[in-house]
Amino acid sequence: MPTQQAAPAALDPPPPPGQTTRLADVFLGTDSLQRRTLQLLGLAALVTAIIVLLLVYAASIGVADVVQVAVLSSLFFVFILGFYAVIRSGLNRRFADPTLAMPQTILAQTLIAGVYAVTGPVHGATVIMLSLVMVFGMFSLRPSAVRHASVYTVILMGVVMYWCTDNLPLHYPLGQELFNFALTAIVMLAISKLSGQLSDMRTRLKTQKIALEQALGHIKEMAARDELTGLPNRRRMMTLLQEHATRHARGGPRFFVCIIDLDHFKSINDTYGHAAGDAVLRAFATQAQVVLRTTDMIGRWGGEEFLLLLPESAPGDPTLGVARLRESLASLPASPVLHDLRVQFSAGFARYEDGEPIDQAIERADRALYAAKSAGRNRSVVL
Fold first, then answer.
1. Is 243 a catalytic residue?
2. Which of 213, 227, 304, 312 is flagged as catalytic?
3. Which of 35, 73, 97, 214 has the fewest Cβ atoms within 10 angstroms?
């Protein structure tokens, strides 16, 4: 009697999300791209917090006007909250760049330039913030956009520094501002150059990744194919049989397992050589793929044996395809070099039974094949 396989245990439901996960979903949403965009905005918020702390410190030691600090801090708050609202609502999807990296960069540099103008003796620290914003921009902007943002930053800071030197010479002496401007220009130029190199590196890595994926796919294909016939090999056919058995257990169609053995193949090798035998195997595989149904699967089982997986589908008998194959081979040359030779084969069928191990179905098909050979070959037997 066929052995019965135990029904698979029901999978446990996934655990409910934790409090942290639920909070993240509330503030960041569940869309992966939107979450990534908001995470980038979070980095901008971190930089903003540092700048606001600098402003507060400048006001606390009396080198910055409290009103100006309050106005700039409010503008930074509006900057972050405004972009968060646009991204969280999904309005950013209407733009060519949903990350809104360019407007964020331009607005941040503009506000930092304002901080530079009101922080008096400690204004030099803000130059670092300009660089930090551009470094973050390198990972979100195209190299051309980084160049444009860098040029904007240099021009903007040049105008601000000139105004500060002209109106606040005590805290913004000309020599120091020339140095700060040169430093800003050099850093922006370096970041712009590095952005191009980073983009080239990412392009090369992406190209290499695609090439590796293609190579891996080719290797997997080779590992699942018989080199001589191009058919699925024994390992691949076993996988397909297991998949169909699982599908049948879930309500899918039943199927037949068929093993075909080419009759008198050894004499072909002995008489005409192994090259001719290989040609016969290739010709058989080609014709089988032409004649069999598209739902039928054939693979090389080993030597001159082939295994077929024949799903049942109404109307029609799956064994009829093998009968058509036998009839077509009777009128075709065994190979391009053996015009007068015809290929004959014996076939053993086994209908897969509920819960039956695949090995057991293959064993019954093999017994049916042996019975077909014992009965005189060139015939099919169903067990």
1. no
2. 304
3. 214
